[in-house]
Design goal:
Strand content: 15-25%
Number of strands: 13
Number of domains: 3
CATH topology of the largest domain: D-Maltodextrin-Binding Protein, domain 2
Number of helices: 10
CATH class of the largest domain: Alpha Beta
CATH architecture of the largest domain: 3-Layer(aba) Sandwich
Order of helices and strands: EHEHHHEEEEHEHEHEEHHEEEH
CATH superfamily of the largest domain: Periplasmic binding protein-like II
Structural class: alpha/beta
Largest sheet: 5 strands, mixed
Radius of gyration: 19 Å
Length: 309
């Protein structure tokens, strides 16, 4: 067992909260362990004036950290699972997935109005095609305001009156102690989350005999099975930030239930389905759900949108 490990993370307030949470959890499990945190700036942190879909998608927030991990400058990386590409680089693996925080999205509005209470034509800020498509399905009258930056930046723009409301992941809002700002918790019927949303990914080098056992203690079995089913769906769909794709799995009555969707960017068409099966077979269920959606017409949407990207 190593006496010291280095955690690689982005430098945003939320990323640092997550890294420190992992640090504290590791040290609680081994009082003799020394844990340091290394801040690594990613391309996604540097490019803030262009929508994610136009500058490369999910890998923007993890590539430089993964490079440091492969180069052995750090021992493990802590990411938001929803930022992780469907496929990991050769030589890296998911060492642990801790118990998940709330996976849903939330609406925060300037006047504390719910989604249904926003005025016609209200400007709603989001950088996510997934969120924008589902918002426009319910409220085609809304104006979508492209919004990048960390959580504090987004709230500051909202409070300055640049838009009427914003949509964020509940997990980040709660982790930073800002739950009092939530105007409405958006259920799956309104806003199906991104694959892995609310979960952390602790990424390590494959066959790392030192770091692997250290982080394994933080793995939450149920969360891992649920999230790996969502990621199998995402991988089968070839998912990226260029396409509105959502997936949310849960354990229901001893079974695994996975719901997924693919949508047109303008919300004019949403293809949605769910599959249930054994809790020990979540990745196969994710693949089955993806194949069903593709058969239902999602494949044509994906081909067109990815061709336009």
């Amino acid at each position: 067992m190593p006496g010291r490990v280095i955690i690689g993370t982005r430098g945003s307030k939320l990323a640092l909260w997550q890294a420190h949470w992992v640090k504290d959890a590791l040290m609680a499990g081994d009082s003799g362990l020394e844990v340091d945190i290394a801040i690594i700036k990613t391309k996604g942190d540097k490019i803030l004036d262009v929508p994610l879909a136009k500058v490369g998608g999910k890998g923007l927030f993890v590539k430089e950290i993964e490079e440091a991990l492969l180069a052995q400058r750090i021992d493990l990386a802590v990411h938001s699972m929803k930022d992780m590409p469907a496929a990991l680089p050769e030589g890296l693996c998911i060492g642990a997935i801790p118990e998940r925080e709330a996976p849903n999205d939330v609406l925060i509005s300037r006047n504390d109005n719910p989604l249904s209470g926003l005025e016609k034509g209200a400007a709603v800020g989001t950088s996510s095609l997934r969120r924008a498509a589902q918002l426009l399905t319910i409220r085609p009258d809304l104006s979508i305001y492209p919004l990048r930056g960390n959580l504090d930046t987004r709230l500051r723009k909202l409070d300055a009156g640049e838009m009427d409301a914003i949509v964020l992941a509940a997990a980040g809002v709660k982790r930073l102690g800002l739950a009092h700002r939530i105007s409405e918790n958006l259920g799956d019927d309104v806003m199906l989350p991104a694959a892995g949303q609310g979960a952390l990914c602790i990424e390590i080098r494959e066959k790392d005999a030192h770091t692997g056992p250290v982080v394994a203690a933080l793995d939450h079995g149920e969360t891992r099975r649920v999230v790996l089913g969502e990621r199998a769906f995402l991988h089968r769909m070839g998912g990226s930030c260029q396409v509105p794709i959502a997936a949310h799995g849960k354990m229901v009555g001893g079974q695994y239930r996975l719901e997924g969707l693919v949508a047109e960017v303008d919300g004019s068409r949403v293809i949605r389905e769910n599959v249930e099966g054994s809790v020990d077979d979540t990745e196969r269920i994710g693949i089955e759900l993806a194949d069903r959606l593709i058969h239902m017409g999602a494949g044509r949407i994906l081909e067109r949108l990815q061709g336009d990207a």
